[in-house]
TrEMBL record:
Signal peptide: none annotated. This is EamA domain-containing protein. GO terms for cellular component: membrane. Keywords: Membrane, Transmembrane, Transmembrane helix. Residues 22-161 form the EamA domain. The keyword Methyltransferase does not apply. SUPFAM superfamilies: Multidrug resistance efflux transporter EmrE (SSF103481). The chain crosses the membrane at residues 18-38, 50-72, 87-107, 113-134, 146-163.
Length: 165
């Protein structure tokens, strides 16, 4: 189970309810992802390196995950997860560390207004990845929209970089 979807999911009866609640969680993620960058940027301005912030932020991540587990999700579902899924989750965590280290370094070098949108090209990459690997979107049917989105995203990044220089 996840935090806190396992509390809500049994109460949802229609696919449209899943969409509304999922959309709400996605907006919440966007809000909190953008908010965590602000204190991070403020702290990193006084540091020569991003690594002290990175380590303390990692502690905050652990405390937050433990709080979710102990306050919201005490079902011990993680003990029933297969070894393969544990390893995949650990790989996801390791990849997140590399991504966050790259983001923190770019925030320090470029500033939040430029670095954040560039780092969030992951939206475009994720759509392509989910289409090719996970088959969540039909590439044949959505090819034009996907390429148009990719081109607009890259153009937006170029404009941001040009505005910075």
């Amino acid at each position: 189970s996840s935090c806190p979807i396992h509390l809500i999911k049994p109460k949802l009866k229609k696919a449209s309810q899943y969409s509304v609640v999922g959309f709400g969680f996605a907006l919440s993620a966007a809000l909190f992802y953008s908010l965590f960058g602000i204190p991070g940027k403020l702290v990193m301005e006084s540091m020569d390196s991003v690594w002290p912030y990175f380590m303390v932020m990692g502690q905050g991540t652990l405390v937050g995950a433990l709080a979710c587990y102990f306050i919201i999700g005490k079902d011990k579902g993680w003990t029933k997860v297969s070894r393969k899924d544990h390893l995949l989750a650990m790989l996801a965590g390791l990849l997140w560390v590399v991504a966050f280290a790259s983001l923190a370094s770019s925030l320090k070098l470029l500033g939040m207004a430029t670095a954040w949108p560039i780092a969030n090209l992951n939206t475009i990459v994720t759509v392509v990845y989910s289409s090719l690997v996970l088959k969540e979107i039909s590439i044949r049917q959505q090819r034009t929209k996907m390429f148009a989105g990719l081109i607009m995203g890259v153009m937006g990044i170029i404009l941001l970089v040009l505005a910075r220089t």
